[in-house]
Each structure stands twice: as structure tokens, then as C-alpha cells.
Amino acid sequence: MFFEYTDPIDGSVVEGRSPRFVFTDGSRIIFRLSGTGSAGATIRMYIEQYTDDKARLKEDAQVALKDIIKVALDLSKLQEFTGRDKPTVIT
């Protein structure tokens, strides 16, 4: 399944190029290519997971989302394709 993204700066719309995986528990993984060309572009990986455990809300995101991040990396093979073993930016 793909989703549509509208750039908030220039209003451009990207359709059909951002794979989205939605799991039965509501967790989502979205990949999006950011940049104007194929060289120097950024692959953005968005991870969302619901929890109703208030104690988990204070966990470091990398720890709390560890399992779904592994699923995302396995699905995408980003490490294999990019040769990187960690992201250059985490927000």
C-alpha cells in the first residue's frame, strides 16, 4: 500500500512512491524518498507504534521501537542496499 505526501514547503505532491506497512496492532512503517534527484537523496523511514502503557512513554524511542525497527530494516533491506549500518540522522 502506498500513501500520498504533500510537501508543506512547496506544496508538491508525491503519489505511489512511498510504501506503507500497517500492522494489525496499528503500528506503521513508512518509507519515503526525499530529495530532487536520485543522487544524494535521503531515504526517510517513519516508525509508529501504539502503547497504552504509560511507563513505556518515557522510554528512549530507539529502545521502545527496537522490535519494529528491526522488522522495517528486514523488510526494506536498507542496510544491504545502502551499505550503512546505522542512520545518519535520527529525529
Structure description:
The chain is globular and about 40 Å long. By secondary structure, the protein is of the alpha+beta class. It contains three helices and five strands; from the N terminus they run βββββααα. It has a three-stranded antiparallel beta sheet, covered by helices on one side. Helix content is 22%, strand content 23%. A hairpin with a 5-residue loop joins strand 3 (20-22) and strand 4 (28-34). The longest helix has 11 residues, at 66-76.
What's the layout of helices and strands?
Blueprint: E1 5-6, E2 13-14, E3 20-22, E4 28-34, E5 42-48, H1 61-64, H2 66-76, H3 78-82
Name the features:
single chain; 91 residues; alpha+beta; three-stranded antiparallel beta sheet; two-stranded antiparallel sheet; 5 strands; globular
Number of strands: 5
Structural class: alpha+beta
Biggest sheet details: 3 strands, antiparallel
Radius of gyration equals 14 Å
Strand order of the largest sheet: 3-4-5
Strand content: 15-25%
N-end to C-end Cα span? 25 Å
Order of helices and strands: EEEEEHHH
Number of helices: 3
Helix content: 10-25%
Mean pLDDT: 83
Overall spatial form: globular
Low-pLDDT segments, ≥5 res = none
